[in-house]
Specification:
It is built from 4 helices and 6 strands. It has helices at about 15-30, 65-75, 120-130, 140-145, and strands at about 1-10, 35, 35-40, 50-60, 90-100, 155-160.
Length: about 170
């Protein structure tokens, strides 16, 4: 089994989509660890704020199969991939860490994800896996978060729910 850290985000009916995604992850992978959900500004474009959280799972799926499963879940939630890379999302699920694997090569999949540099990824991951060691830097997620420029900022915690709209 491999420990995998996922980053989840949405800015279109985010509480509903993230609640459903967490439920689907628990149904597929069993015991999961879920961070608080935070409201954070959109990055890379002007748009409504996102709600972001993180989930830790243990899986025997290989990376490609897990990535395909996550994409299928995004698609079930109406993810539109036809627009610009930075745009509104019903659901975005990224494999940020897959054990201590490092993947840098052709294609869209890079592990650890480059988005790790953003607070919307780092803060929730540090909440649920502070002692997890980034295989690139050799630092724990807690240490990386403490060194982040937004470490001292307060972020709004948002409750997720099946009937929530915003």
């Amino acid at each position: 089994m491999t420990t995998v850290l996922l980053s989840l985000g949405s800015n279109i009916q985010p509480r509903r989509h993230l609640h459903a995604a967490v439920a689907a992850l628990a149904a597929r992978f069993g015991k999961i660890t879920v961070s608080p959900a935070y409201r954070m500004a959109a990055v890379g474009f002007d748009g409504p704020a996102f709600i972001n959280n993180a989930v830790a799972i243990d899986t025997d799926l290989d990376l490609d199969a897990l990535d395909a499963w996550a994409h299928a879940l995004e698609d079930e939630h109406g993810r539109d991939r036809s627009g610009p890379r930075f745009s509104d999302r019903t659901l975005d699920i990224d494999v940020v860490f897959y054990g201590d694997l490092i993947v840098e090569g052709p294609g869209h999949l890079r592990i650890p994800r480059p988005e790790l540099k953003h607070a919307f990824v780092m803060k929730p991951l540090a909440d649920i896996a502070p002692t997890f060691v980034d295989p690139v830097s050799g630092l724990t997620l807690a240490a990386l978060w403490r060194a982040h420029r937004q470490y001292d900022e307060a972020f709004d915690v948002v409750e997720l729910g099946p009937d929530a709209e915003a």
